[in-house]
Write a structure and sequence with these properties.
This protein has about 300 residues and is of the alpha/beta class. It has a 6-stranded parallel β-sheet with strand order 3-2-1-4-5-6, sandwiched between helices. It is elongated, with a radius of gyration of 26 Å.
Length: about 300
């Protein structure tokens, strides 16, 4: 199984490399083709005006790209800390990006407008067009910077899930622990998850554990994956986003929850490993949700 995982990993690397170079070639041809269309539609003067004015602002996107990589690193480090405060890191990053966006907006509005009025060489009557292109480019640049922390929260976790032997560890506590439901649904305790994690580490090469829970504080305090990498979904995503992330994982440790059941069911990874509790209910009631290829942990 481990050898197969390494082989599959090598195939994915080769496939991703081919896809990346294919994208670069496609973008090159699309860029040349669209430039020709734009030149024919705008004419030499307007095309040059759009390129110069818009291009000056686009130069500032290198700041956005650099900030994106840095923000992703901070967020992912915090995700991997058992005592990490993801909300605090996100809020700090968000405030910094908003402050930078405001600073760049003021700088571009003052310096850019002065440049257009005093130094930009355009045909008579084209000053208004130059100003319009500049204002749109400035607004889009600033909005892109403000969006960096939000994009980093979602895109990078999905990247981690898709490019590793990701294991969704689904822990549901909340309503399963109240007096009304505990006797029926409180099946998966600490011992279950400890044994399930141990089983996954035996079956899967270099697993990366992604924890999904309505009680992340309990998860961070009690569940340890040893020297394996682990990350924590924020717990505050919309239901559809949580399902999208969860079902994108390759392997699963699920609780007796139909939400978790759907996540593993929607996963199309051919060699997925699903670990589940041997009982779905606290009483003797049987469940028809079990599948033949599951690994069951006695509870």
């Amino acid at each position: 199984m481990i050898v197969e995982d390494y082989q599959n990993g090598n195939k994915r690397i080769a496939k991703n490399t081919i896809v990346i170079y294919g994208q670069l070639i496609l973008r090159l041809f699309l860029g040349l083709f669209t430039s020709r269309l734009a030149l024919e539609a705008l004419g030499v003067s307007d095309f040059g005006l759009n390129s110069v004015v818009g291009g000056v602002v686009v130069l500032f996107t290198f700041i956005s790209n650099s900030l994106s990589e840095t923000t992703i690193r901070f967020i992912n480090v915090e995700r991997g800390k058992p005592d990490g405060d993801l909300n605090k890191v996100f809020n700090v990053c968000n405030i910094l990006h908003i402050a930078l966006a405001i600073f760049l907006f003021v700088l571009l509005e003052v310096g850019g407008v002065y440049y257009i009025h005093h130094y930009l060489n355009v045909d008579p009557g084209k000053e208004a067009d130059a100003m319009f292109v500049f204002q749109v480019s400035t607004i889009m640049c600033c909005l892109g910077i403000i969006n960096v922390p939000f994009a980093s929260m979602y895109v990078k976790l999905m990247h981690i899930i898709q490019n590793n032997n990701s294991v969704a560890v689904c822990v549901r506590r909340g309503d399963f622990l109240n007096a009304k439901n505990a006797e029926m649904y409180n099946v998966c305790g600490l011992s279950y998850y400890e044994r399930a994690i141990k089983l996954i580490k035996q079956r899967i090469a270099k697993p990366v554990f992604i924890f999904f829970s309505d009680d992340l504080d309990w998860v961070k305090e009690h569940l340890d994956v040893g020297n394996c990498d682990c990350f924590y979904e924020s717990g505050k995503d919309e239901v559809w986003e949580t399902m999208r992330l969860m079902s994108s994982c390759k392997h699963f440790i699920i609780s007796n929850s139909t939400f978790h059941w759907w996540a593993q069911y929607l996963c199309d990874y051919p060699d997925k490993v699903v670990v589940a509790p041997s009982r779905w209910y606290g009483n003797k009631l049987e469940s028809a949700l079990y599948q033949d290829n599951w690994d069951l942990i006695s509870v």
